[in-house]
Amino acid sequence: MPEQSGKVQTVLGLIEPDQLGRTMTHEHLTMTFECSHVPPAPGDEGLAAASIAMKHLHWLQQNPYSHHENLLLNQEIEAVKEELLCYRKAGGGSIVENTTTGITRNLPVLRQLAKETGVHIIAGAGYYVDVTHSDETRKMTVEKLTDIIVNEVLHGADGTDIRCGVIGEIGTSWPITESEKKVLRATAHAQTQLGCPVIIHPGRNKAAPGEAIRILQEAGGDISKTVMSHLDRSIFDPRELLEFAKMGSYLEYDLFGTEVLNYQFNLDVDMLSDSQRVQTLAFLIREGYEDRILVAHDIHTKHRLTKYGGHGFSHILKNIVPKMLSRGITQNQVDKILIENPKQWLTFK
Ligand SMILES: CC(=O)NCCS(=O)(=O)O
């Protein structure tokens, strides 16, 4: 039985699950997102090239992926540190940092931030979406990928002794590519060996979450210990959502704070607003899924930091929790979503 059994693994070492406190299960503290750059609309080239400024803020909020500098969250370590101190003051305890290979994971920075702020940080093992896979990664067998992921959890990643406490976010596109399928199978095999938590980034299609779970399941993964991210831009029809929920993964609404007219990555999608996210949580609770819900902001660009007029890492604690309570979600249910469910997920078997 690995030493992690019954514990949570942070970048500073193992902790007791009760030490976690309120936990955002899907954030990024340092990463790059150039792989997802969207060319600006004709006529917007000037805005896309300008420095970030108040007078451009609305444009940036609506077109975050068309501004190159905005995609470099790794340049904001000091601002992120300030945000984490505010998060602690607002009652936050822990953050799962989902940056995996392909989007510039930086484990020494995560360790430094954990030391300087007192926030428990849990790092992610594995690989992001296919466009970020190296030729070397693409050629690897499932066995080799499994060994690498297991090593990142048991011994440390990226040449450091800093150990990851979850596998993911494991990136998938739509349709899921062959290289991504291998990584999903390796994830399931590593999870079987380690009894660890897993988190998946689905492709941008309503069929994507179900397909990723099926691949994991067929490879022996433990779906009850797996989180499906980004449901707030993936499945909108209530019946389809309940069909997906029956598959047994955690259901994560992790784009709180994102309010956009057009979802740049898929113009067919009408992204949920925060009010609609809260309504969806209330619906899932009524349907009996309160033990399966997780929430976060998935901050992955500069403009969502308070330094740039964004909502920051404390938005859920400061604004969404009161809204949840005002819409009939009980304090006990809020505590389940913020404390108990993350604890169950993050504790190694
Ligand atoms: C970093 C990351 O993968 N964020 C998700 C953005 S998306 O719009 O939900 O795909």
From TrEMBL:
<feature type="binding site">
    <location>
        <position position="201"/>
    </location>
    <ligand>
        <name>a divalent metal cation 2</name>
    </ligand>
</feature>
<feature type="binding site">
    <location>
        <position position="298"/>
    </location>
    <ligand>
        <name>a divalent metal cation 1</name>
    </ligand>
</feature>
<feature type="binding site">
    <location>
        <position position="230"/>
    </location>
    <ligand>
        <name>a divalent metal cation 2</name>
    </ligand>
</feature>
<keyword id="KW-0479">Metal-binding</keyword>
<dbReference type="GO" id="GO:0016787">
    <property type="term" value="F:hydrolase activity"/>
</dbReference>
<feature type="binding site">
    <location>
        <position position="169"/>
    </location>
    <ligand>
        <name>a divalent metal cation 2</name>
    </ligand>
</feature>
<dbReference type="GO" id="GO:0008270">
    <property type="term" value="F:zinc ion binding"/>
</dbReference>
<feature type="binding site">
    <location>
        <position position="28"/>
    </location>
    <ligand>
        <name>a divalent metal cation 1</name>
    </ligand>
</feature>
<feature type="binding site">
    <location>
        <position position="169"/>
    </location>
    <ligand>
        <name>a divalent metal cation 1</name>
    </ligand>
</feature>
<keyword id="KW-0378">Hydrolase</keyword>
<dbReference type="InterPro" id="IPR001559">
    <property type="entry name" value="Phosphotriesterase"/>
</dbReference>
<comment type="similarity">
    <text>Belongs to the metallo-dependent hydrolases superfamily. Phosphotriesterase family.</text>
</comment>
<feature type="binding site">
    <location>
        <position position="26"/>
    </location>
    <ligand>
        <name>a divalent metal cation 1</name>
    </ligand>
</feature>
<protein>
    <recommendedName>
        <fullName>N-acetyltaurine hydrolase</fullName>
    </recommendedName>
</protein>
<dbReference type="Pfam" id="PF02126">
    <property type="entry name" value="PTE"/>
</dbReference>
<dbReference type="InterPro" id="IPR032466">
    <property type="entry name" value="Metal_Hydrolase"/>
</dbReference>
